[in-house]
């Protein structure tokens, strides 16, 4: 038996990476403080460096792929959406034509005008996505439980996450079996939708049944016994340095607020 | 005082017409090993659910009669407290994985965490149980991605690690190969030797014959036969109730029918061999 793995439970969980090993609450404080600072500054000269900083931290934490899978999509959607909205609101005045898409004239000014907004949304979401990409849900729940959240709530969160994974798997299974019965599941959106909607019923029923099963399964593990739980897997509590870091992050956030008002 | 006392118990699941249990009376004594056999849909699992308190606390429905656990009516028991005293291994191992742990080692430890066992003790117990069930090469695997047999072992390990004084085990070997089945029965035997009360539902009749103290044959929600293992399993009438007879007992009856009876009907191989030798 792998005694190194077993021994890992005897001390606090560590990965050796500075950012990953920060206490989830510390990480949450830092990410939230920076997210709000982006909202306060509302300036591309602040937003862009913050976006880049998020990418760099994700890279250093070795979680860039997870981070960017999500962040890349958010970036695309936000940029497109804000630009289009700005474009629609920018029909008159002193404008410079930029590109013409099938008779729809886009203007340079709309890109510039959207810029501050785009970078603030991206700075804000970047900080939050960075947090979730580098903090396993079970670690976050562990920390919340340490702060007094009930283990029932923690279980509901974690079980829902697993439920989503299970549902995905189940929907693939159902689609496969439909395919084997000769129902078309590949092709354009309409064909896919037609194949997908009939699977919702069994999926939903399955989810309800599995919730009941999970409740019984947890009962078999004495989940609701009125005793203080122990934790096999423990995280280091936030050190004084880490607490100072959290406070510093919020002081910085407050500073941006002051800066914004006196400017 | 009996550990579990059933007195004229009938039970109907909600929204169903037929009674899943009919007029059941039986006493389960502390420290004994009971085997429950019988046809599919006979009510074996329902009886387990009842003793463990899932009926009526979780499955509502209509319950009549007295069910006493340690002298206290099941309706007055707190389900949570029962869960710390009676371990229950489900018939379907796929529904016994918590879904919130990322490794098998942590999955097996979950019950002990909930019971508030100190960490060092948890590590020791889980390590031992994993060795016992030969899942030590799986401890780092994701419990949600195991085969049926592996899940069954993990589910079994998860419950026996809690070391409850009573165990209800519903078909623990349905997904296992003959070797795995033997392992599990070996473990149940050691559990029995440590004086635990065990109720086991199992179709593998030769295993039941070898290990159990008493047998209940269930059919259509009632107890058709009950008594000491040898007496019940050598009785050919149980076959009319969807239960099997051990190979050795079938052999014994065949010999008798052929006009060459053994001194008595054997129910295990080790019992049959000397009887056959004596005949010569
Ligand atoms: N959750 C439920 N809701 C309604 N009816 C149920 C439920 N579970 C079982 N039953 C019914 O109760 C009866 C007894 O079922 P039970 O599962 O106890 O049988 P069993 O002896 O364990 O069968 P098997 O050998 O197949 O496991 C059956 O008629 C079954 O249809
Ligand atoms: Mg059953």
Number of strands of chain B: 10
What is the oligomer described by this structure? heterodimer
Report the C-alpha radius of gyration of chain A, rounded: 24 Å
Query: How are helices and strands ordered from N to C of chain A?
Result: HHHHEEHHHHH
SS summary, helix count of chain A: 9
Largest sheet of chain A: 2 strands, antiparallel
Q: Shape of chain B, please?
A: globular
Number of structural domains of chain A: 2
| Unreliable runs of chain A | none
CATH C-level class of chain B: Alpha Beta
Task: Report the C-alpha radius of gyration of chain B, rounded.
Answer: 20 Å
Biggest beta-sheet profile of chain B: 6 strands, mixed
Number of strands of chain A: 2
Biggest interface, chains and residue tallies: A-B, 37 and 45 residues
Name the poorly predicted regions of chain B: none
- Category by helix and strand content of chain B: alpha/beta
Pattern of helices and strands of chain B: EEEHHEEHEHHHEHEHEEHHH
Which SSEs are present, and which pair or pack?
The complex is a heterodimer of chains A (263) and B (280).
Chain A: H1 3-7, H2 24-41, H3 44-60, H4 64-88, E1 97-101, E2 104-107, H5 108-134, H6 137-146, H7 151-180, H8 189-220, H9 240-262
Antiparallel strand pairs in A: 1-2
Helix pairs in contact in A: 2-5, 2-9, 3-4, 3-5, 4-5, 6-7, 7-8
Chain B: E1 4-12, E2 21-28, E3 33-38, H1 44-51, H2 54-57, E4 62-69, E5 72-73, H3 79-85, E6 86-89, H4 104-114, H5 119-132, H6 148-160, E7 166-170, H7 178-193, E8 197-201, H8 205-211, E9 214-219, E10 222-228, H9 229-233, H10 247-257, H11 269-279
Parallel strand pairs in B: 3-8, 3-9, 6-7, 7-8
Antiparallel strand pairs in B: 1-2, 1-4, 4-5, 9-10
Helix pairs in contact in B: 4-5, 4-6, 5-6
Bound molecules: adenosine-5'-triphosphate and magnesium ion (MG).
């Amino acid at each position: 038996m792998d005694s190194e793995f077993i021994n890992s439970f005897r001390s606090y969980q560590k990965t050796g990476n500075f950012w990953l090993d920060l206490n989830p609450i510390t990480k949450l404080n830092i990410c939230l403080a920076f997210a709000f600072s982006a909202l306060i500054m509302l300036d591309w000269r602040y937003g862009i460096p913050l976006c880049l900083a998020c990418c760099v931290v994700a890279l250093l934490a070795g979680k860039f792929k997870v981070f960017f899978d999500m962040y890349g999509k958010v970036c695309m959607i936000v940029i497109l959406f804000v630009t289009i909205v700005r474009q629609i609101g920018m029909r008159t005045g002193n404008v410079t034509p930029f590109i013409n898409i099938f008779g729809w004239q886009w203007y340079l000014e709309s890109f510039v005008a959207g810029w501050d907004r785009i970078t603030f949304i991206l700075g804000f979401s970047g900080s939050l996505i960075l947090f979730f990409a580098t903090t396993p849900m079970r670690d976050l729940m562990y920390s919340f439980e340490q702060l007094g959240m009930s283990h029932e709530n923690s279980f509901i969160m974690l079980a829902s996450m697993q439920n989503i994974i299970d549902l995905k798997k189940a929907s693939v299974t159902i689609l496969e079996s439909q395919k084997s019965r000769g129902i078309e599941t590949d092709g354009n959106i309409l064909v896919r939708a037609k194949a997908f909607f009939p699977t919702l019923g069994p999926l939903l029923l399955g989810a309800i049944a599995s919730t009941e099963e999970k409740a019984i399964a947890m009962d078999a593990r004495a989940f609701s016994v009125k005793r203080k739980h122990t934790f096999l897997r423990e995280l280091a509590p936030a050190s004084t340095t880490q607490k100072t870091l959290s406070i510093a992050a919020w002081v910085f956030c407050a500073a941006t607020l002051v800066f914004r008002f006196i400017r | 005082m009996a550990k579990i006392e059933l007195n004229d118990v009938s039970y109907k699941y909600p929204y169903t017409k037929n009674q899943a249990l009919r007029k059941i009376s039986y006493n389960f004594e502390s420290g004994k090993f009971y085997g429950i056999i019988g046809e599919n849909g006979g009510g074996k699992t329902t009886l387990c659910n009842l003793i463990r308190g899932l009926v009526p606390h979780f499955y509502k429905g209509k319950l009549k009669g007295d069910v006493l656990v340690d002298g206290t009516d099941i309706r007055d028991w707190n389900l949570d407290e029962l869960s710390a005293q009676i371990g229950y291994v489900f018939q379907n191992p796929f529904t016994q994985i918590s879904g919130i742990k990322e490794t098998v080692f942590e999955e097996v430890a979950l019950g002990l965490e909930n019971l508030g066992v100190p960490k060092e003790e948890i590590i020791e117990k889980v390590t031992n149980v994993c060795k016992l069930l030969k899942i030590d090469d799986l401890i780092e695997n994701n419990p949600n991605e195991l085969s049926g047999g592996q899940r069954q072992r993990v589910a079994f390990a998860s419950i026996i690690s809690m070391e409850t004084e009573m165990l209800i085990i519903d078909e623990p070997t349905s997904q296992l190969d003959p070797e795995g089945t033997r392992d599990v029965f070996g473990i149940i035997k050691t559990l029995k030797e440590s004086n635990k009360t065990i109720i086991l539902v199992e179709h593998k009749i030769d295993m039941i014959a070898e290990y159990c103290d008493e047998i209940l044959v269930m059919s259509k929600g009632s107890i058709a036969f009950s008594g000491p293992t040898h007496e019940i399993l050598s009785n050919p009438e149980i076959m009319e109730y969807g239960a099997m007879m051990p190979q050795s007992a079938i052999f014994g009856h065949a010999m008798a029918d052929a006009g060459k009876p053994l001194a008595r009907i054997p129910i295990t191989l080790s019992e049959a061999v000397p009887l056959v030798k004596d005949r010569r």
